[in-house]
Every structure is written in C-alpha cells, then in structure tokens.
Amino acid sequence: MQDFFQNYVNGSWIDGGGGRLSVTNPGTGAHLADMALADAADIDRAVAAALACHESGALSDLRPVERSRMVRKMGQFMLDNKAEIAELLCLESGKPLWEAVIEVEGTARYFEYYGNQAETVEGRSIPLGADYLDYTIYEPIGVSAQIIPWNYPIEMTARGIAVALATGNTCVVKTPELDPLSTTWLARAGEAAGLPRGALNILCGYGHEAGAALSNHPDIGNVVFTGSVATGIKVAVAAAQNVVPAILELGGKSAAIVMPDADLDQVMDSMRWGIFFNAGQVCSAMSRVIAHPDVHDEIVERAVGLAESLSVGPGIERTAFGANMGAMVSDNQRDRAEGLCKHAASEGATIAIGGHRLNQPGSFLAPTIITDVTPDMQIASTEVFGPVLSVMKADDEADAIRIANSTEFGLVGGIFTRDIDAAHRAARKIKAGQIFVNEWFAGGVETPFGGYGKSGYGREKGREALLNYVQTKNIAYRTR
Q1: pLDDT grade, residue 1 (50/70/90)?
Q2: Which of 12, 15, 360, 453 could form a disulfide with 410 if both were Cys (CB 3.0 to 4.6 A apart)?
C-alpha cells in the first residue's frame, strides 16, 4: 500500500491545489492512505487538456477500430491486475474482497462491450429525390465530465468513460472523496492502452468545489452524474447555465412484488443479492418487498433467517462468496441508515432483526429486516442506501402495483410470479426504467439503465448510452 496517491491530468501524475485528503478503511476505522485533493484550478487545467486533445483529433480522427482496440486494452489491463486492484478497492470501500473482484471484472466488461461497439456507430442516408444526396453522421460531443459515486467507484467510472472514449470523446473524471484510490488504476489502464495525452483525466476533489467547477465548466460537452437527488439538481442547473446536457442517475426505492405463486427460493436468492450485496449501497437495490398475504409471513421468516446467517466484518477477511457482508462506506452513512431504522420503529414498524450498528471497529450496520411497514412511513419512501429491507403487504396485484408506484423514485422494479400474464401486466404498469421478472439484477452491461421520476433521466449501459456521447449532424447536398 502506497502512502500517497496523485491525480492524473494531461498524461502526468500531479498533486492537487486543495492539499491532501485522508482516506479511511471503513472495515477498521483506521487511516488507509492520503489522496491529492484537486481544486477548481486543477479542474480547469484538466478540462483544457481534454479539450485540446479533442480538438487535435488525436482520438476522434482515428478509425473506430483503433479506438476499439485501445478501449478493449484498458479492460484487459484491469483484468491483468485484478488481484491488486480488488484488494485496494476492498480496503477503501469496505466491501468484501470477493465483491471487489466482481467489480473489477465488471469494470473490464464495460471496456470490452463498448470497445466492441466503437465500429457500430453509423449514420444513414435519407432519400430526397434525384437531385439530392442527404446523409447523417454522428460526431463526438467533445469533453465528457463524469462525476462518480462512491458505491462502485471503478465500475461506475468505466461505465461512462468506456462509451465516451469509444465514440471519440475525451474525459474528465471527478472521483468520490470516500474511496478514490482504486480509480487511479484506470489512468494506468489508459496509459497502457496508448490513449493520447489529455484523453483521460482523473481527479479527486470535494463536490462543492471540484464537482461544481466541472459541472458548470463552459468547455464540457456533457455531464454524467450518479448520486443524490439534491446534488443531481445542482449539477443539472449548473450544466443548464451553459446549455450542456446532463445524464442523471439519482437512486431509487425499488420494490419487488411477490405473488402467491412465486418460487420463494428464487425470491430469497434475489434478496441475498438485492439488499445485502455491497451492504445494500446500490441505487437499484431491492429495498422493498411487497408480498401477498398468502406468502408474507413465510417471506419474513426466511428473510430474518437470511439476515441472521450473514457474517459481518472486515471485507479483506471475506475472500469468497458466501453468507457474509462487509462494512458500509463510512460512519456517516451507517449512522444515517441506523437513524432511519429507529425512526421507522417510532412510526410503528417492527424491527424484525438488525437496525443497529455493530459493537466493533468500522462502519458496520447489522443486516436489517423491517416489517409492518405502510406506504405513509418514511422508511417506505426514503432511500436508505444500506442493508435494510422493508417488507410490506398487499392484498392483490393492483394493490401491490399501487404501493410499488407510491414513491417519487422509479429506477427499477420487479415481480416474482409463475403467471406470465401477471408478469407482463406488472412490467407495463410499474413506473420504472428497468423491470426484473423472477430475478433481481437480471440483465447486464448490454441492457439500458436509467430511471423515471426523481431517479433521474437519460440512459446508461447498452447501445442507448452511445447516444449520450454523440451529436447528430445532417448534411444535405444539392447535386449538379
């Protein structure tokens, strides 16, 4: 473990004008390393470097296959260094080591997928009659500003920069303050792949300074943000001042509807991944289960048993998939989640298990199941972003869909049933950008992702994400 990590601007490793940031290991509460802290001037230098690279054509003028090879090489570099990257990610984020390995592999998958898409972004000709030649082309937007959340620091970064680079854009990345260390490996990956200087710039800074400077910078072509609704609104307003498009993914309060004919083994397997993976710090987590009365009590019993079975402790000690869970990312995040659990109890909900911090060093919250939750309670509509599952009861399919749609969010939703007609009815009526049927987190890099309502707008992942990074130009030619 090195003691100090630097920012990466215009092909060079540099200190930051904001001094140094102390990064804590949430699995122990101990200091881990220092990170160079970027200020607004550093952001300005990074954007200038990215813009100069873009305007030079060093990336955008390449044949798409050449960009494809670079992007895919970045993914291979991450895989080649998977063990070292995963250990660093585990230590700074608190997640189990096996989960960190999955994140590194997911990071590589984004580079693979979008590297392969680089050659598929094609325009078309439009017939206007014998005297005209009309066609469209897609041009890169220029500098893509990426503001990254802390729950998946390297995978979320890859999700944006892979598609940006593949389509010929340059990038400036503002990493999260809580776990910025592992993202430095993405700069190394860019160097190993032969990216031109200025194509990829990665800096750590506070949101109110570096993040604000990036989102309202006049020389960016778009801004991509994942985080809270309140901050997302600020980012969108700042970008709008320069008439710059924003892609916002702002979290959710997603519900899984469980019908009486559901396979409860499938439900429990999805629950394991849906709310306890990454200690529930997942924007698309299964944070609510809406159960039919016929299966409600059995689901609660099984859910409590699942929570009881989880060994919770430092992620570095949890090397293999199993009944285990790591820390939350910080004491502040843990304390917020614990406070929401206590408030739920004060409103009349029942803490079936958990709901409290663990009496040990580190940012640990016990796996939590809350029952007797009604839609009017705070816990039913507020994103906890922790290992906290609310179990609710619905009389029938229509009631379940009404409850599922009763929050301001609409990121994902799901239904567990053997009735294919019911599954499709629910899929059409649940107000969310992605619907899972009989498996939470079904889908992958290939499937578009984004929300309705206060879950944000724009789509990431899949081919739809390509459209965030290009502008359509039409050329109409009158022949002689």
Answers
A1: confident
A2: 453
Whole-angstrom Cα Rg for the chain: 23
Catalytic residue among 87, 283, 397, 460: 283
- Please, are residues 214 and 419 in contact by the beta-carbon 8 Å criterion? no
In this prediction, residues 130-145 reach a mean pLDDT of: 97
Would you call 283 a catalytic residue per the annotation?
Answer: yes
Residues 66 and 81 sit within 8 Å (Cβ to Cβ): no
pLDDT in tens, 64-81: 999 999 999 999 999 999
The token pair that represents 417 in the structure block: 């049933």
Local structure of 81: helix, strand or coil: coil
Cα-based angle 111, 115, 117 (whole degrees, multiple of 5): 125
- Could you tell me the maximum CA-CA distance found in the chain, to the nearest angstrom? 82
Give bridge partners of residue 368 from the DSSP assignment: 388
Give helix 82-93 / helix 153-166 axis angle, nearest 10°: 130
Q: What is the DSSP string of 451-464?
A: -EETTEES-BSTGG
- Report residue 436 as tokens: 């899972």
The DSSP symbol for 416 reads E
- Per residue in 195-227, pLDDT (tens digit) is 999 999 999 999 999 999 999 999 999 999 999
Which residues fall within 8 angstroms of residue 85, CB to CB, at 6 or more apart?
A: 78, 100, 104, 154, 182, 185
Amino acid at position 344, single letter: A
Question: Is the pTM of the predicted complex or chain greater than 0.90?
Answer: yes
Q: Compute the distance between CA of residue 164 and CA of residue 169 in angstroms, rounded to an integer.
A: 5
Q: How confident is the model over 359-405, as pLDDT tens digits? A: 999 999 999 999 999 999 999 999 999 999 999 999 999 999 999 99
Q: What are the DSSP E strand ranges found in 259-308?
A: 288-291
- Say which residues have a Cβ less than 8 Å from residue 330's Cβ, sequence separation at least 6: 24, 26, 178, 363
Q: Which two tokens stand for residue 120?
A: 């598929």
Q: What DSSP string runs through 133-199? A: EEEEEEEE-SEEEEE--SSSHHHHHHHHHHHHHHTT-EEEEEE-SSS-STTHHHHHHHHHHTPPTTS
DSSP state of 119: G
pLDDT classification of 480: cutoffs 50, 70, 90: confident
